[in-house]
Amino acid sequence: MSAPLDGITVLSIEQAISAPLCTRHLADLGARVIKIENPGVGDSTRHYDTVVRGMAAHFVWLNHGKESAELDLTDSEDMEVFARLLAKADVLVSNLAPGALGRLGLDPSDLLARHPRLVVVDISGYGTGGPLDHKRAYDLLVQAEGGSCAITGLPGTPAKPGVPIADIGTALYAYSAVLAALYERDRTGRGTVIPIAMLDVVAEMMGFALNGVLHGGEEPEPVGMGSPMIAPYGAYATRDGQTVVLGTTSDREWQRLAGKLLQRPDLEADTRFARNADRVVLRAELDVILGAWCAERDLAEIQQLADEAGIGNGRFNGVRELAEHPQLVQRKRWREVGSPVGPIPALLPPALGRGWTVPAGRVPALGADTAAIRAEVADDQDPPAAGDRSPLRSGLAL
């Protein structure tokens, strides 16, 4: 048994979330991932906090399974090391600030010309061209530009989703595109450049809302724990102080909810609620009905009745409850990875083929592999130039 990406080498000039999550998933599938970090500083997420026994939660999440090499790509000797690595790499992933790759002499098109089998992923906030292509892009900024905050929260109180969906969505598109590019390379022998703009990712995720507006619908309003497009669908307080989440996603489910779960044949027969579009308009009335019904029952009873009626339901959990969730524990979704402070828990990758092995991995200390990597490439033949070797001050800023 082996991991599916055994033998693939990935170089990553990365910071924060989007590129690191992409490359961590590649490492989960067996790729060798060499993370290039600024000497003495490293990835910015290393310094967000110290909650994981002195390490930062973000960094631990995003970087196990990688090697860390401290290289100053504005230094001619370090750029030579990078060039030697690049000459035998399969994939380069970057999410530097706008123009930073070019200032380093690493323009993606030029790299592909020098290394025809290389897959180059160039992550940016807004893509090339257009009035925003020069701007830095963080998750909140792109979500604000992309409209996702406008349909999250409550009317008059927009909110950023609690997880960084622009970063994570970009990472997953980059990850899947790399796999497709490697498959294409097997057939054609050619690599490619994959530009990915975070705004494009958020716009894709907003597809249902965009279609509504493009085709004459009104601007959707956020509904907190619910969806602007579906009703009833939300969170309701229970008699025992818990919160149950109930939802319908079709007219047939509404009939079951009204007739079987609520035992309200009058609601089931009420033509005002027959179609989802009508129920969305009457959301407040339905929420009052469901809220009163749930307030008279404990969570366990509601969930049992909902299961029997074929109605989707869940419990509103906090993060600690997720960490202890029996569904994760009983399905053995947790494992241990190494780190500078000893073994720490990490989740298994969400998508694994049967029989695939998962590399043990470790969270690397800053520069943990620099010496070994320098020694590894020291005797290689001189590679094609990888960039401008004159000192620059662009750095590896996002």
Detailed description of the structure:
By secondary structure, the protein is an alpha/beta fold. The chain folds into 2 domains: 9-205 and 333-377, 3-Layer(aba) Sandwich (Rossmann fold), CATH 3.40.50; 226-315, 2-Layer Sandwich (formyl-coa transferase, domain 3), CATH 3.30.1540.10. Helix content is 38%, strand content 16%. It is built from 17 helices and 14 strands. β9 (226-227) and β10 (230-237) form a beta hairpin. The chain is elongated.
Supply database-style keywords.
single chain; 398 residues; alpha/beta; Rossmann fold; formyl-coa transferase, domain 3; 2 domains; six-stranded parallel beta sheet; four-stranded antiparallel beta sheet; 17 helices; 14 strands; disordered C terminus
Concise account of the structure shown:
The protein is an alpha/beta fold. Helices cover 38% and strands 16% of the residues. Helix 10 (251-261) crosses helix 14 (299-309).
Question: What fraction of residues sit in β-strands?
Answer: 15-25%
For the biggest β-sheet, the strand order reads 3-2-1-4-5-8
Task: Bin the helical content.
Answer: 25-40%
Which second-level CATH architecture of the largest domain applies? 3-Layer(aba) Sandwich
Count of the separate structural domains: 2
Sketch the major β-sheet: 6 strands, parallel
Distance between the termini: 38 Å
Q: Structural class of the secondary elements?
A: alpha/beta
Count all strands and give the number: 14
Q: Could you please say which CATH topology of the largest domain applies here?
A: Rossmann fold
Kindly provide the radius of gyration, computed on alpha-carbon positions and rounded to a whole number of angstroms. 25 Å
Instruction: Supply the CATH class of the largest domain.
Output: Alpha Beta
- Annotation field: number of helices: 17
According to CATH, the homologous superfamily of the largest domain is: Crotonobetainyl-coa:carnitine coa-transferase, domain 1
Could you tell me the mean pLDDT?
93
Regions with pLDDT < 50 over 5+ consecutive residues? 387-398
Overall outline: elongated
